[in-house]
Design a protein that fits this description.
Elements (H helix, E strand, L loop, with lengths): L5 E2 L2 E3 L2 E3 L4 E6 L2 E10 L3 H19 L3 H17 L1 H12 L3 H26 L2 E5 L2 E9 L2 E5 L7 H12 L3 E5 L6 H11 L7 E3 L4 H9 L3 E7 L2 H12 L4 E5 L4 E5 L8 H12 L9 E7 L3 H15 L1 E2 L15 H16 L3 E4 L2 E2 L2 H6 L6 E4 L6 H4 L6 E7 L2 H9 L6 E5 L2 H8 L6 E4 L20 E2 L4 H6 L2 E8 L11
Parallel strand pairs: 1-5, 8-9, 8-11, 9-10, 11-12, 13-14, 13-20, 14-19, 15-17, 18-19, 20-21
Antiparallel strand pairs: 2-3, 4-5, 6-7, 7-23, 12-22, 16-18
The protein binds nicotinamide-adenine-dinucleotide.
Length: 492
């Protein structure tokens, strides 16, 4: 169902800005089809966008919560009205199944609503009266925020930043990923149209734009979601001007299946399969390595394969029967395949899972059949690195101590999950180093926008979602009115 390619433009100071160069975005399921074009903005255009955000800041920060919330709620309604066409565009440029694209928009809206409902309460002045004096803890806007988002969940990982930032009185320049730039730009335009010029700006491009966004002295905070290696460049670029930062980075999330997990619980088994292969495994918080207690390992593998073969149907994102769409880009397939090949060559068993719905399409597009890797070494790259694609290693462990050690020996610590009897699972969960640990579920199935989300170790700094995801866009400002200014230890 190819349609005319759409053309996206940057938004600077409330106006569409025509760039000299544009980059095509193909449909990963049908790579011959160009879905649209996004601009390749320059350093100068990025500076213009930052200047516009900087100029808009002074007036915007003095607006009331009511004004900001009303504008955001109007934008939410516009996104709701246009969800069917935005979801189709997202599925076509990204490769994810249509139901998955709709789910991403639904989660984005949920968060935007939460931010509207809670902003005034979370950021209101706190008044403390003490010993005859008074202290106000105010939550000021920070300034110009540079938001940089990745390709895997472009809409939710952009709105997760836009909503609290603007509601808290900041202004923003957003740069989405060139690998899924179109649908998120449509959403950004709908939001930007409801706000004064310069409050929300949009630029596109590669590292040149990213470097300006992360080093320009007028930028007060960077809100970044993406890879850990990119984050290291960003921290260096931002060092000269000491910027605030929220970094949501890669993960290598462990799923621990305890000896008291019921292998005959088909629903739980399906949840585990989904948490390995939803969005073809291209989610930061997907369960990327599974450790199973050795006493149930053989039966577990048998039941897991049954559940996986039943749920996984790889094919066209628009086919209603399909559960796993295309991989977003060829480079990602090559990387995941290299990890599988490495383990296979060392003696691991490689098992293909599920059904391919249309063999011809599968050969033409960027498709990859979900793959199980058994018998890999605990230190193999497929176990230690973030594969970010449809392949998962399953390995046995001896006892809880061993499982906890395996989960924690990673440089990452985003999410994790423990599967088994609740009390036992919680005991194990408490000892895992991660921002979130889910019990008997994992990945987006256990996500709740009301609670903070983020990583420990090299999976990131700071939190998004929940009240902490709002406070991340405010500067704490203490206004002190002590009863007496005379301190007893200062001589007359
Ligand atoms: P990436 O780091 O390659 O790119 C992310 C963004 O950074 C893109 O917009 C890119 O153009 C931009 N960028 C690249 N170089 C830059 C530079 N030098 N300065 C500034 N910006 C620059 O990541 P990706 O491949 O788009 O996304 C996949 C990664 O993101 C995975 O590691 C995944 O785990 C991670 N991720 C994390 C979360 C989370 O919440 N923790 C969520 C989704 C994805």
């Amino acid at each position: 169902m190819a349609t005319e390619p759409i053309v996206i433009e940057a938004i600077i100071n409330g106006e569409k800005h025509k760039a000299e160069k544009q980059a095509p975005r193909e449909n990963p399921a049908h790579p011959d089809e160009i879905v649209g074009y996004a601009p390749l903005n320059t350093k100068e255009e990025t500076i213009q966008a930052i200047d516009a955000a900087d100029q808009a800041f002074t007036e915007w920060r003095d607006t009331s919560f009511d004004d900001r919330i009303n504008r955001m709620r109007r934008a939410i309604q516009k996104i709701k009205d246009k969800t069917p066409e935005i979801a189709e565009l997202l599925a076509r440029e990204h490769g994810k199944a249509l139901y998955d694209a709709k789910g991403e928009i639904a989660v984005s809206l949920m968060w935007m609503e939460f931010a509207c409902d809670n902003i005034a309460e979370v950021l209101k002045d706190e008044l403390h009266e003490h010993d005859g004096g008074k202290t106000i803890i105010a939550r000021d806007a920070i300034g110009v925020i540079s938001a940089i988002s990745p390709w895997n969940y472009p809409i939710s990982l952009s709105t997760i930043k836009i909503a609290p930032a603007l509601l808290a009185g900041n202004t923003m320049v957003l740069k989405p990923s060139p690998l899924a730039p179109l649908a998120v730009s449509k959403v950004t335009e709908l939001i930007a149209n409801e706000f004064p010029p310069g409050v929300l700006n949009l630029v596109h491009g590669e590292a040149e734009v990213g470097v300006e966004l992360t080093s320009n002295p007028k930028v007060a905070k960077i809100a970044f979601t993406g890879g850990t290696e990119t984050a290291k460049h960003i921290m260096k670029a931002a060092a000269d001007t000491i910027k605030h930062m929220t970094l949501e980075l890669g993960g290598n999330d462990a799923a621990i299946v305890l000896d008291d997990f019921d292998v005959n619980d088909e629903k739980a088994m399906r949840r585990l399969v989904v948490s390995n292969f939803l969005t073809a495994g291209q989610i930061c918080m997907i369960a990327k390595r599974v450790y199973v207690h050795e006493s149930i390992y053989d039966t577990f593998i048998e039941k897991y394969r049954e559940a996986a073969d039943k749920w996984i149907r790889v094919g066209d994102p628009f086919d209603k029967n399909v559960t796993v769409g295309a991989v977003n880009n060829k480079k990602q397939i090559e990387f995941v395949q290299s990890l599988i090949d490495d383990s296979k060559q060392k003696g691991a068993e490689v098992i293909k899972l599920g059904k391919i719905v249309d063999e011809n399409l599968f050969k033409q597009g960027y498709f990859m059949q979900p793959t199980l890797v058994l018998g890999a070494d605990y230190d193999d790259p497929i176990v230690e690195q973030e594969q970010f694609g449809p392949a998962v290693p399953i390995l046995p462990f001896k006892d809880d101590e061993h499982a906890i050690h395996l989960a924690n020996k990673s440089i990452f610590g985003l999410t994790s999950s423990v599967w088994g009897k609740q009390e036992h699972a919680v005991k194990v969960a408490k000892r895992i180093q991660a921002g979130t640990t889910m019990i008997n579920t994992a990945a987006v199935q256990g996500l709740d926008v009301r609670f903070p989300f983020g990583g420990v170790k090299q999976s990131g700094i700071g939190r998004e979602y929940g009240k902490e995801g709002i406070l991340a866009y405010a500067e704490t400002h203490v206004i002190n009115m002590p009863k007496t200014l005379d301190l007893p230890y200062i001589p007359e």
